[in-house]
């Protein structure tokens, strides 16, 4: 990543309110192509809501969202996903009664068999694509160290494994950018190390990340850029060193974690 | 003896017809998680349209098109599908509880409509008289009842085979994922609104087919057949058999319909004359009891849904089939 890298994701004055409460307040955020950008801020700062707004899960009051130079504001989440922008959830959303393997198979794009008339007319085409997807699923299982639980019901996994499954599912396609919502929360230290290693590996292969994370140590060490939010607003945008010496940020956030 | 056998044939025919409707509901609820509280609306639409399209002239009333039976049956099923498109566009975005109430209301509205639209539906007296397929050729009534049973079973097998294929395909996987978590499916590029509407309509077409077959069998349909109790019974069959499992759906139909018929027989032969009127009520209670007991003892039904349903391609097919844990109810 170079300083001159173009913005992959760009929000301009995005606001979201619930009733009279502004959860996201005129947020303008830039994520450089090829970066790992950390999004920090105390609980309730509006980080998850911002994610939801970016992918169209949550309607914005105003503002624009551009991805790869194209306006994606107003698209539905499936449309945003097809533009190459994927996200995971803070509280994992596994397809609980389906096996881990099926969770991955489902997440793959371009399966013609997902139209109801195709199973009737073109079994071959489905099988060919299923074989490709299954191969990819096995790679992703190995990559995310979930092989041993492949045949288990996803709802039965530990919280940490479910977090890995969140990442595994979005890796079934090759998104340009992944937004991770607290990927390490509730994950044990060993799995967290695996997770970080995988994120850096994917980043080296060209995938851009926007990561919400509470562990300041992780953020400082692994993120190229740090954006901090508080009360729905951006209060800091810059590098790790700057973040550590920023008064507003220290007061709003770092102090709070120390107290907690 | 011959009385018992012919009753058995009658019982099995009705079971096969109802099983088709239960399979339709299984696609909607068991696979896609769509709560249809108005099954009878689609069943009834299939029945009425079939008999209007295929039936004889009815002295000045609408209908009597005399279409060949297969066309009339298909027309009834298509009409049920059309109704589902209208209902679905208006309601499938609704949450489960609201969707249940909305579909229940639609079924009540349709029953009221057929009861009053006499020109179209014969009103409260219904539409009577229909020449059943090949009835003229097979003049022995018992042989004909055997033939009709075979016909119903063949249609049931076709529906079962088609649905099994659909459910074990990637489309079935997509349905289950949307049932499990719509938001997650959407975040992975799927379009739940489209898929839910499709499953709702396909399920309704199957219910319409069952209704058309039902009206054919009795050569008669009236608003009586569209009472909410039928929706309730079909739900009971699915829950007892095992939502999400097509074999379970058919088994549940057999068990619940068997209990219904047996209890009706016992009550009508045991209950004193003056209490006969209330015997029906006891049957309702019995069905409720069967549901409650099933939910307590086997909450996922007699044949629970399997965890791995999609057909696996390729050499590394492990063929692993296991049961999802009981804790993933709800
Ligand atoms: N669906 C919702 N309805 C009402 N308020 C919400 C909703 N989602 C989030 N909020 C509120 O918006 C604020 C921001 O929440 P969130 O984006 O989850 O914060 P963060 O992810 O930074 O912890 C919180 O005060 C939260 O209670
Ligand atoms: Mg959050």
TrEMBL record, chain A:
Residues 9-256 form the ABC transporter domain. It holds the Pfam family ABC_tran. GO terms for molecular function: ATP binding. Keywords: ATP-binding, Nucleotide-binding, Transport. SUPFAM superfamilies: P-loop containing nucleoside triphosphate hydrolases (SSF52540). CDD domains: ABC_Mj1267_LivG_branched (cd03219). Coiled coil: none annotated. PANTHER family: CONSERVED COMPONENT OF ABC TRANSPORTER FOR NATURAL AMINO ACIDS, CONSERVED COMPONENT OF ABC TRANSPORTER FOR NATURAL AMINO ACIDS-RELATED. Belongs to the ABC transporter superfamily. This is ABC transporter ATP-binding protein. It comes from Hoeflea poritis. The lineage of its organism: Bacteria, Pseudomonadati, Pseudomonadota, Alphaproteobacteria, Hyphomicrobiales.
UniProtKB/TrEMBL annotation, chain B:
It is found in: Cell membrane. It is a multi-pass membrane protein. It holds the Pfam family BPD_transp_2. CDD domains: TM_PBP1_LivM_like. The keyword Nuclease does not apply. The chain crosses the membrane at residues 6-27, 34-55, 67-91, 98-122, 142-163, 199-220, 251-271, 277-297. The keyword DNA-binding does not apply. Keywords: Cell membrane, Membrane, Transmembrane, Transmembrane helix. This is Branched-chain amino acid ABC transporter permease.
